[in-house]
Amino acid sequence: MTKRILTGLKPTGEQLHIGNYFGAIKPFIDLTHTEKDAEFFLFLANMHGFTQLHDPKTLKEYSLTILKLYLAIGINPNKVFIYNPAEIPAHAQLNRVLSCLTIMGTMERMHSYKDALAKGKAGELSVGTFNYPVLMAADILLYDADLVPVGQDQKQHVEYARDIAEKFNRQYGETFKVPHPLINREVATITGLDGRKMSKSYNNYIGLLDDEKTLLKKVKQIATDTKTVEESKNPDECNVYKIGKLFLTPEEDQARRKKYLAGGLSYKEAKEYTFEKMRNYLAPIQKKYHAISDEEVIHMLAKNTSHIQEIAQKKITEVYKKIGFTLS
User: Fold this and answer.
1) Lowest-confidence segment of 41-45, 62-66, 113-117 by average pLDDT
2) What's the pLDDT score for residue 209?
3) Considering only 154-158, 215-219, 229-233, 251-255, which range has the smallest mean pLDDT?
4) Does one domain contain both 46 and 85?
5) Which comes out higher in pLDDT, residue 117 or 37?
6) 97, 120, 280, 312: which could join 90 in a potential S-S bond, CB 3.0 to 4.6 Å?
7) How far is CA 195 from each of CA 20, 122, 236, rounded to the nearest angstrom?
């Protein structure tokens, strides 16, 4: 069987941030150039987004924004199947099957639940959020994905998908391919403005669509230590460097590291340099984004749905037959 590579992002904000891009989407794009014979699947995770976003108008608006960004950042729609799982019934169907095979103890070990528990908010967690990893497993297993490019924070969810696939295969016979998480260690966790992991929930992110004024304001907010201009600085401990290096060529990166270590570099200069690199990198993405219409991405989804539906239906038919749902 042809190797399949799959990933997706939630439409839970007005745009994607550079952590989403460098942590998951850019590695995915790079694979489309190196894995010439593979099939690529990129989905709109709006069923996951619904755990947080219940206003239909906003959910649709955010969904269209992410789809347009997929194209603007370089996803080739002729090479990658971009689709909406909410229009593919098999996602919800397989979610139900896998939910019935998963014990509570497994879900209680998941990071999302443990975080809510630690904050005293477990009682406020929706059932959909609690079962988030089950739906993600269904998204992956439905298409026999070999590789799933993710950030470090999603590794546990892919590992759960592996576990549930192996459990199902043992009980009902070989059905699902066991997927592997693909994590680029250099960008496994993208640093935010405050030094924590970049996240919309922390409001410490830099958006792909941030205008020049907003971008400059955010770069100025990047947390730094109290070292003087003259002092040597360890680039690997500097938030400005860790964010800025994402936008550098290997040659630029080496030159930048030398400047940090040599001393004489002010954080003001470091931030100005980072701002220039970011602005130049993001400008073409933003220009392309604004040239893409809603109708264009809706048409793209419609074109892909029938092909994706055929793959998904074949798998869920096999699953239903094996577990006894199909009576004929």
Assistant:
1) 113-117
2) 97
3) 154-158
4) yes
5) 37
6) 312
7) 16, 26, 12
Q: Same domain for 275 and 158?
A: no
pLDDT computed for residue 36 by the predictor:
87
Residues 53 and 162 both lie in one domain: yes
Q: How many domains are there within the chain?
A: 2
Indicate whether 127 pLDDT > 80.
yes
- Nearest to 145, CA basis, from 30, 312, 260, 322: 312
At 89 the pLDDT is 97
Would 31 be classed as within a structural domain?
yes
Residues 291, 283: Cα–Cα separation, whole Å:
13
Residue 233: which CATH number? 1.10.240.10
Q: Return the pLDDT at 183.
A: 84
- 280 within some domain: yes
